């Protein structure tokens, strides 16, 4: 596979991030969320979401992209919850590129950066039905700390919370 380049996302990446966001939702979340919620995540909706995101400067999140041949193959959005705790808010890899180390490369990249900034831990909330993502976080050293109910897309959803020591 060609080299992966990792960088902070910019407004120039909107269309490609929206494509990955849309494709991943249709491929993965149809099994986990009500169909009306998945249907709403159209390509146009994702473009509007990411345009607004960059207009507002991320509103507390930072997004990083992994590119192959100048095309976005995956992205991760992080939140800085407190001075020492960060959170993976979203991590999506284009279904055509999954299983090739892109998710690991993105996570390792942001964890290193967060550690250098003084963060001690990172958390992530994963839908209880999302077994693939749970295997991914466990492989990266995440420790299951609790299960919880969260409100996401107007539904109560059960999640597992993983913690990473940075
Ligand atoms: C979860 C996700 C980000 C992983 O990205 P990826 O680039 O496919 O992952 P990697 O190739 O870096 O895999 C790293 C490790 O994760 C585990 N893993 C990845 N995909 C897996 C799968 N389908 N089944 C089991 N384990 C898996 C493996 O241990 C793998 O290591 P290995 O290749 O040495 O076996 C990606 O599958 C994705 O975008 N999923 C849909 C969106 C999503 O669920 N995001 C997380 C929301 S909390």
Would you give an account of this structure?
The protein has five helices and seven strands. By secondary structure, the protein is of the alpha+beta class. A hairpin with a 4-residue loop joins strand 3 and strand 4. The protein is globular and about 35 Å long. The mean pLDDT is 94. Bound molecules: coenzyme A. The site of coenzyme A has 20 residues, from helix 1, strand 4, helix 4, strand 5 and helix 5.
Question: Quick summary of this structure?
Answer:
The protein contains 5 helices and 7 strands; from the N terminus they run βαααβββαβαββ.
> In percent, how much strand structure appears in the residues?
35-45%
Overall SS class: alpha+beta
What portion of residues is helical?
25-40%
Give the CATH superfamily of the domain at 4-118.
Answer: Gcn5-related N-acetyltransferase (GNAT)
What is the chain-wise order of helices and strands?
Answer: EHHHEEEHEHEE
Largest sheet: 7 strands, mixed
Shape, please? globular
The radius of gyration is 15 Å
Strand order across the biggest sheet? 1-2-3-4-5-7-6
Q: Please provide the count of β strands.
A: 7
CATH A-level architecture of the domain at 4-118: 3-Layer(aba) Sandwich
Distance between the termini: 28 Å
Bound molecules: coenzyme A
**What would the average pLDDT be, to the nearest integer?**
94
Keywords:
166 residues, alpha+beta, 5 helices, binds coenzyme A
Give the secondary structure arrangement, pairings included.
Layout: E1 4-8, H1 14-28, H2 35-40, H3 43-55, E2 61-68, E3 71-80, E4 85-93, H4 102-116, E5 121-127, H5 131-139, E6 143-152, E7 155-165
Parallel strand pairs: 4-5
Antiparallel strand pairs: 1-2, 2-3, 3-4, 5-7, 6-7
């Amino acid at each position: 596979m060609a080299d992966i380049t990792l960088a902070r996302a910019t407004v120039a990446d909107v269309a490609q991030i929206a494509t990955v966001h849309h494709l991943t939702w249709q491929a993965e979340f149809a099994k986990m969320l009500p169909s009306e919620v998945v249907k709403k995540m159209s390509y146009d909706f994702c473009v509007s979401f990411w345009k607004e995101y960059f207009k507002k400067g991320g509103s507390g999140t930072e997004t990083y992209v992994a590119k192959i041949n100048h095309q976005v193959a995956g992205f991760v959005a992080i939140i800085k919850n407190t001075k020492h705790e960060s959170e993976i808010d979203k991590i999506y890899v284009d279904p055509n590129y999954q299983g090739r180390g892109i998710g690991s490369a993105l996570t390792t990249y942001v964890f290193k950066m967060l550690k250098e900034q003084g963060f001690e831990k990172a958390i992530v909330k994963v839908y209880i039905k999302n077994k693939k993502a749970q295997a991914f976080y466990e492989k990266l050293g995440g420790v299951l700390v609790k299960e919880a109910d969260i409100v996401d897309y107007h539904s109560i959803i059960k999640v597992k919370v993983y913690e990473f020591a940075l």
